[in-house]
Amino acid sequence: MKPLLKRKLEDETGIMRTMPSQQEFLGFESLPALLQRNYGLMRDLDKSLQGVQRQNEQRCEQEIEDIRLGVESGNITPDTSLIRFSDEALDEQKHCIRIADEKVALATQVYDMVDAHVQQLDQYMRKLEEVRQERELATGAGVGASNADASTRSRRVAESSRGGRKKSRLAVEPPSVDLELPVDPNEPTYCICNQVSYGEMVACDNPDCKIEWFHFGCVGLKEQPKGKWYCSSCVGMQKRRKGK
């Protein structure tokens, strides 16, 4: 199997391992039905609660009216410790509380159900993110190795070019800063800027020049010089020798 195809299959297999199984997906698909069922039960409880509340309110209002008339007629002693609602009215109020508790239990169940699915999805997303980061690191390592090979070839070209003392050369363009690729510590540096070779460069015609190669921009050149060309350091050295 070809390495590229094999790596692609391994990457896809790694991603597939992080994805939920078919049975787990069915669990996600059943969530709307479960939510709809619980919401339907909550609506039914609401209707039942409203009916019991209306019935209890009417019963309590009637009993309050009966107590008021009884007190006014003298049939009921106006003692607040003895005046109370009927057992039927109290039972209806307790029934309302039970219905409200059932609604709270259903709402809590819905919340826990949704929260469990959200946590499960978050777990899948974290696994996918880990796979993505691993693939990026692997891709970056591959690009870094390619860049190192290119730097080595560039260095060999530079070393071979010095033997012929060519006036200018076009080196490999430096990688974009956005790529954030590692810099080869063994890459030789040139010019007064002490940077690696890039763009067009010119060689000093002084065989004893310590720097030898210079970037066009660093020495103010826009095109290849005609005739012999000396760097500023070598020109200054020649003038001092003539002065002596």
Would you kindly provide a brief summary of this structure?
This protein is mostly helical. The chain contains five helices and three strands. Helix content is 64%, strand content 4%.
Topology of helices and strands:
Elements lengths: L2 H16 L3 H8 L1 H43 L13 H78 L3 E3 L29 E4 L9 E3 L16 H12 L1
Antiparallel strand pairs: 1-2, 2-3
Helix pairs in contact: 1-4, 3-4
The residue ranges in which pLDDT falls below 50 over 5 or more consecutive positions are 1-10, 160-181
- What integer value in Å does the Rg equal? 44 Å
Give the SSE string.
HHHHEEEH
Strand arrangement across the biggest beta sheet: 1-2-3
- How many E strands? 3
Cα distance, first to last residue?
A: 74 Å
| Overall SS class | mainly alpha
Largest sheet: 3 strands, antiparallel
- Kindly report the oligomeric state of this protein: single chain
Anisotropy-based shape = rod-shaped
Helix content: 55-70%
Amount of beta strand: under 5%
Number of helices: 5
Average residue pLDDT: 75
Kindly describe this structure:
The chain has a three-stranded antiparallel beta sheet, with no helix packed on it. It has five helices and three strands. The two termini are 74 Å apart. It is mainly alpha-helical.
Question: What keyword list fits this structure?
Answer:
244 residues, mainly alpha, three-stranded antiparallel beta sheet, disordered N terminus
